[in-house]
Write a structure and sequence with these properties.
single chain; alpha+beta; GMP Synthetase, Chain A, domain 3; 3-stranded mixed sheet; 22% strand
Length: 88
């Protein structure tokens, strides 16, 4: 796999989420790889959680479907985890 495709899933999530949320400076996207595949962990400001999850979870579900399609191009299993924001 080339370096250009390795972080494409992470960059995709970061770009899309920053367009949706009210606090783009608080968006943190990390990528880790293990024997189960690729895990993208998303952390956003607590006020933006509703926008990321969406009505009945549809926004989060759509992000996961698109990530699966990106992963299938390089035969990787890509999962999205939306982390609970820390209560400040």
């Amino acid at each position: 796999m080339s370096d250009t495709t390795q972080g494409a899933d992470r960059d995709f999530v970061e770009y899309v989420v920053k367009q949706i949320v009210e606090n783009p400076e608080c968006v943190i996207v990390t990528r880790s790889v293990d024997d189960m595949g690729v895990l993208i962990t998303l952390t956003v400001h607590k006020d933006d959680m509703g926008k990321i999850i969406g009505k009945s979870g549809q926004t989060a579900k759509s992000l996961r479907i698109l990530l699966r399609m990106i992963g299938s191009r390089s035969n990787e299993r890509v999962n999205l985890k939306i982390a609970e924001p820390d209560e400040a």
